[in-house]
Write a sequence for this structure.
């Protein structure tokens, strides 16, 4: 008499072979067949990465991850509410347990806000000791481990953790294995913050470093000279305030860097940089920068000279231009007003000159639909994203229809301006809360990091 097979008694090797032919979702579903199948799935080949979403309601799930997966995965991300002391301390518990992992190669810390709550306030000695104990020490333990050496350290734009960047580099047992370091920050108070320092020599042994993010405060000719010896593919720089003692970075230093690293993409972001935005084109931008992406976030003004500078100097490198502010009821800052000073629409000139431009995003400013049509005609389907939210309010919706149709035709996709219903809350009418703005900035700006 034929008997149906007892699937629960298949050898582990046979189940493993079955799992290898399934995608991750189907593999998880198949593992629910019974306890035996479930036990077989916990292998490094089936779990390369996990993300801990730290919250009280996720304690059971995170405990399961720590027990079953933390010791076999190569990549871990930890997101947490950095304004909640309970979640902060849960995060540090996970970090310490991860120090025992024998396979971990990549660690990413993802605070949800620019601030990190501690029992103390500001940068007091007690707070400093608290951060050392709960965050810095476990990260240093991971960096100091020789086998396997850590390859990726991403601090998730945390200002207070980035102040320890030199400590992290100093304690790294095998800096030649580091492939990605993310030390750039989003400041809690962009107008007043402590300056971190990193000695350029600390990067000399990072001979396989491909991705580096840091704040403009740290950048200098000397550091750029050191970085040009590394195989960087992506350099991400955040600008907040401009310290009066900062020497800036010279055109000759950028020219030398670009000559040695022709494949490096520079992502430059101004974050709540209320003063730096005015001197962007005179003190920060340099013609030889390998600038591929520019983001200007919540700087409360637009700089048309900088836009013109972009179109004249980055014809062969610029791929993305993003300029975002919250909307203001009391004034409509129209880009046409900027044309009067530059004699021509800077967006149209950018679309004409920059042959690699694929993305234009502008929020918080009223735009002329005629110029948007011009941009779409010049870039056509090569412009993958044209995102705006304010078009000349003197034009009725009926009159806007032909503009929308023409832009859609040129881009090869359905297009229309975003309205107040589809805009993220951070881009709504001013004022916007710091928490809402921080969450938006952190999520948006981290698109630059290519893990």
């Amino acid at each position: 008499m034929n008997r149906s097979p007892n699937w629960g008694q298949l050898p582990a090797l046979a189940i493993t072979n079955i799992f290898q032919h399934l995608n991750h979702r189907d593999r998880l579903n198949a593992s629910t067949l019974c306890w035996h199948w479930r036990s077989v799935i916990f292998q490094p080949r089936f779990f390369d990465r996990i993300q801990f979403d730290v919250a009280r309601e996720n304690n059971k799930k995170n405990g399961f991850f720590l027990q079953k997966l933390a010791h076999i995965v190569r990549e871990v991300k930890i997101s947490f509410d950095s304004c909640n002391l309970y979640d902060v301390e849960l995060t540090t518990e996970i970090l310490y347990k991860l120090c025992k992992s024998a396979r971990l190669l990549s660690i990413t810390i993802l605070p949800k806000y620019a601030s990190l709550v501690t029992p103390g306030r500001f940068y007091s000695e007690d707070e400093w000791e608290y951060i050392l104990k709960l965050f810095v020490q476990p990260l240093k333990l991971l960096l100091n481990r020789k086998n396997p050496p850590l390859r990726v350290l991403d601090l998730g734009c945390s200002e207070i953790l980035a102040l320890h960047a030199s400590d992290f580099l100093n304690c790294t047992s095998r800096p030649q294995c580091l492939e990605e370091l993310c030390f750039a920050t989003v400041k809690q108070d962009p107008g007043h913050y402590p300056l971190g320092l990193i000695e350029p020599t600390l990067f000399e042994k990072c001979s396989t470093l491909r991705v580096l993010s840091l704040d403009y405060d740290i950048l200098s000719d000397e550091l750029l000279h050191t970085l040009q010896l590394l195989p960087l593919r992506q350099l991400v720089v955040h600008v907040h305030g401009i310290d009066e003692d900062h020497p800036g970075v010279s055109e000759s230093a950028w020219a030398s860097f670009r000559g040695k690293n022709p494949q490096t993409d520079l992502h430059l972001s101004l974050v709540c940089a209320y003063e730096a935005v005015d001197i962007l084109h005179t003190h920060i931008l340099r013609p030889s920068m390998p600038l591929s992406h520019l983001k200007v976030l919540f700087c409360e003004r637009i700089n048309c000279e900088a836009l013109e500078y972009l179109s004249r100097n980055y014809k062969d490198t610029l791929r993305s231009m993003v300029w975002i502010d919250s909307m203001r009821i009391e004034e409509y800052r129209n880009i046409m007003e900027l044309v009067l000073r530059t004699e021509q629409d800077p967006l149209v000139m950018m679309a004409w000159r920059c042959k690699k431009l694929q993305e234009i995003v502008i929020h918080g400013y009223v735009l002329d639909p005629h110029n948007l049509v011009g941009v779409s005609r010049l870039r056509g389907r090569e412009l993958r994203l044209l995102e705006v939210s304010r078009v000349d309010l003197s034009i009725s919706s009926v009159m806007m229809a032909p503009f929308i149709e023409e832009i859609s035709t040129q881009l090869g996709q359905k297009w229309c301006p975003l309205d107040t219903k589809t805009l993220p809350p951070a881009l709504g009418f001013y004022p916007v809360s710091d928490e809402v703005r921080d969450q938006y900035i952190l999520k948006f700006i981290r698109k630059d990091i290519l893990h």
Notes: The radius of gyration is 25 Å. The CA atoms of residues 381 and 411 lie 5 Å apart.
